[in-house]
């Protein structure tokens, strides 16, 4: 039996990469991706919670998607991302239509959550071992985002990023280069390097800033 998944991704490009990873995990395991939310058996809302308008947009979107449990085929509503990282327990309590919440550090579990519900088995892949380049791209075919790091070590009083995304973690240079090569082989012409703090890239992993070296290697 075929099961359809629809996902709406809110907020920044870093969130979009996480969304593409989740879709990639599920697509690799024979779930069908659709843009028709009325047709979807599983709906995923990847939220943003950085500023007040983003929180409101996320909550409004969750409520909108919850309606498909009445008007569509939705059997499972999963909410992920920054808003659930901070307010997951409260969201599930206040919006009972939500079946599962996943934060920014454990969204890779989405595959097993879905499979246990619909196929009663574990998935063969998870984000922890799932290649970034195999994510399900949602950008135009000529362009793609490449996440070079996650999190932030700055403790700015006005910013929630360290709380939402954790401490700074650079990806190894060779891993990034491998992803870029793969994307180019797929026909991508424009690579956008992203992180919460791109200029800090490499400090945690190599003890010095490596963004310039990385750019030179990619070029």
Structure description:
- The protein is α/β, with parallel strands linked by helices and 219 residues long.
- The chain has 2 domains: 4-118, Rossmann fold, CATH 3.40.50.12160; 139-218, Transcription Regulator spoIIAA, CATH 3.30.750.
- The protein contains 9 helices and 9 strands.
- The protein has helices at 13-28, 52-66, 68-71, 82-94, 110-118, 161-165, 173-185, 203-206, 211-218, and strands spanning 4-9, 32-33, 42-47, 76-81, 100-102, 143-147, 149-150, 169-170, 190-194.
- A 5-stranded parallel beta sheet has the order 2-1-3-4-5, sandwiched between helices.
- Strand 4, helix 4 and strand 5 form a beta-alpha-beta unit.
- The longest helix has 16 residues, at 13-28.
- The N and C termini lie far apart (45 Å).
- The model has no long low-confidence stretch (mean pLDDT 92).
């Amino acid at each position: 039996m075929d099961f359809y998944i629809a996902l709406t991704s809110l907020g920044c490009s870093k969130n979009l990469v996480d969304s593409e990873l989740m879709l990639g995990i599920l697509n690799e395991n024979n779930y069908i991706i659709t843009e028709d939310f009325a047709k979807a058996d599983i709906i995923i809302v990847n939220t943003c919670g950085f500023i007040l308008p983003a929180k409101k947009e996320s909550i409004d979107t969750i409520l909108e998607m919850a309606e498909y449990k009445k008007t569509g085929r939705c059997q499972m509503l999963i909410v992920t991302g920054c808003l659930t990282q901070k307010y997951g327990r409260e969201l599930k309590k206040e919006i009972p239509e939500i079946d599962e919440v996943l934060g920014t550090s454990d969204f890779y579990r989405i595959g097993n959550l879905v499979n246990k519900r619909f196929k009663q088995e574990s998935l063969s892949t998870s984000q922890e071992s799932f290649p970034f380049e195999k994510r399900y791209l949602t950008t135009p075919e000529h362009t793609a985002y490449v996440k070079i790091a996650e999190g932030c070590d700055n403790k700015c009083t006005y910013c929630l990023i360290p709380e939402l995304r954790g401490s700074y973690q650079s990806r190894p240079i060779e891993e990034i280069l491998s992803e870029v090569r793969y994307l180019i082989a797929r026909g991508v012409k424009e690579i956008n390097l992203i992180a919460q703090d791109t200029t800090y890239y490499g400090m945690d992993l190599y003890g010095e800033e490596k963004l310039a070296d990385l750019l030179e290697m990619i070029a």
